[in-house]
Amino acid sequence: MDTLPNVSSATGQKRMDEGATGNKGLLHLDLFSGIGGFSLAADTVWPGIEHVFVDNDPFCQKVLKKHWPKSYIHGDIQKLVLDLEAGIDIMELCQDHA
């Protein structure tokens, strides 16, 4: 199981608490991210915000990787373990039936 903000060693990325993007600003956890619509808006409102995505759809993961290449994308929410001391500033959950 992956524990956020610690990133799986398989990704080769830095731990989130070190700032995978070098950002010392806000940390956004995007659950069921889709193609990142909320994250795009967040980038406009809070330039430099750091995103962690959770989505298991391969197409969506490709789109997220294209637009946020330095962000961590976690595929299985059932194996996600949150470190609540990580300092997550924004957590949002997308749903298909609002």
List keywords for this structure.
98 residues, alpha/beta, 2 helices, four-stranded parallel sheet, two-stranded parallel sheet, 6 strands
Describe the structure.
- With 98 residues, the protein is an alpha/beta fold.
- It has two helices and six strands.
- It has a four-stranded parallel beta sheet with strand order 4-3-2-6, with helices on one face. A two-stranded parallel sheet has the order 1-5.
- Mean pLDDT is 76; it is low at 6-23.
Please count the beta strands (DSSP E, at least 2 residues each).
6
How much strand? 15-25%
Total helical segments: 2
Please, what is the average pLDDT? 76
Radius of gyration: 12 Å
Query: Strand count, sense and closure of the main sheet?
Result: 4 strands, parallel
Spell the H/E element sequence. Answer: EEHEHEEE
What is the spatial order of strands in the main beta sheet? 4-3-2-6
Distance between the termini: 30 Å
Helix fraction? 10-25%
In terms of per-residue confidence, which ranges show pLDDT below 50 for 5 or more consecutive residues? 6-23
Shape, per Cα inertia axes: globular
Helix- and strand-based class?
alpha/beta
Helices, strands, pairings?
Elements: E1 2-4, E2 27-31, H1 37-45, E3 50-54, H2 58-67, E4 72-74, E5 80-82, E6 90-93
Parallel strand pairs: 1-5, 2-3, 2-6, 3-4
Short account of what is shown:
This protein is of the alpha/beta class. The protein has helices at 37-45, 58-67; strands spanning 2-4, 27-31, 50-54, 72-74, 80-82, 90-93.
